[in-house]
Design a protein that fits this description.
Blueprint (H helix, E strand, L loop, with lengths): L6 H9 L7 E6 L6 E6 L2 E6 L4 H6 L14 E3 L4 E4 L10 H7 L13 H12 L1 E3 L4 E2 L10 E6 L3 E6 L4 E7 L17 E7 L14 H22 L4 E4 L4 H8 L6 E8 L1
Antiparallel strand pairs: 1-2, 2-3, 4-5, 5-10, 6-7, 8-9, 8-11, 9-10, 11-13, 12-13
């Protein structure tokens, strides 16, 4: 049987390719780093760890294809992904953010820049320990069962922590569809917190506790969002008023998943 390709060996193979540009490897999903995403220049390839050498060769490890991509856009087979800039640690102290946080119900709808959106996503649900895959938000039994979606003035998207990237679902301004109250429709960005039923299948505890933990973990992530927003001078409000009949189809949320909370930021 062919030898399995180990992580370090795979990176060395890619580095030796006769093509200009650098290679980068990120490991995901965060729950159990069993896969590797490799990008070299404009070429993107998905290669599972443990794949045999002939299989890996068949998956374009030794082939280079040319795609025109911007610096912040990562090519995938089926997804329109925007790679976010690395987070900046420019917020105030946690104690100050807690003391200053208030539910703000007046917004002017101004657009937030990409760095601010990146930071809000990262400090809500990003991977803050890349070595062990731990995230900013704790989850029951480390199931990572809460998905974060956002709606801006340009698009609605799902945040992918393993890539620190946004998977663009639909382009356009759909922020008003994420809210019922008129004031919330004027927010700069809407954050939506969803229980991912498939991710929660591996929960080892009492199944009757899933609902409780799902709601709790959603609230923790939403609290992260609000506190970071406060720390950089933005207002926020946690909301339970939304129309699932509008939100779910717009964000392409599976029927078995549950929308729990939304947060307006601006």
């Amino acid at each position: 049987m062919a030898d399995k390709i180990e992580r370090d060996e795979l990176v060395k193979m890619l580095a030796a390719l006769p093509n200009s540009g650098s290679c980068m490897a990120t490991y995901g999903p965060p729950a159990n780093y069993q896969n590797i995403t490799v990008f070299r220049g404009g070429d993107g390839a998905w290669v599972p760890l443990g794949m045999t050498r002939p299989q890996a060769d068949n998956r374009r490890i030794r082939t280079v294809q040319t795609h025109k991509t911007s610096a912040n856009r990562m090519p995938t087979k089926e997804k329109n992904m925007i790679k976010l800039p690395e987070p900046t640690f420019d917020g105030s102290k946690v104690s100050e953010a807690i003391a200053k946080r208030r539910s703000i119900r007046q917004y002017d709808g101004h657009a937030l820049d990409e760095q601010t959106i990146a930071n809000l996503c990262y400090f809500s649900a990003g991977i803050t320990d890349k070595e062990r895959g731990f995230c900013a938000n704790p989850t029951a039994c480390n199931c990572h069962q809460i998905d974060l979606y956002i709606a801006t003035d340009k698009y609605c998207a799902k945040y992918i922590p393993a890539e620190h990237a946004l998977d663009i679902i639909e382009e356009g301004d759909f922020r008003a569809e994420m809210a019922i109250q008129p004031f919330a429709k004027e927010a700069s960005v809407q954050f939506i917190y969803v229980i991912n039923a498939k991710s929660f299948e591996k929960f080892p505890g009492n199944p009757d506790h899933k609902v409780k933990y799902g709601y709790t973990d959603s609230a923790i992530m939403a609290t992260n969002t609000c506190l970071y927003a406060t720390s950089i001078g933005l207002g926020s409000v946690m909301r339970g008023m939304f129309d699932p009949a509008l939100v779910a189809p717009r964000l392409h949320i599976p029927a078995e998943d549950e929308i729990v909370l939304t947060v307006s930021v601006g």
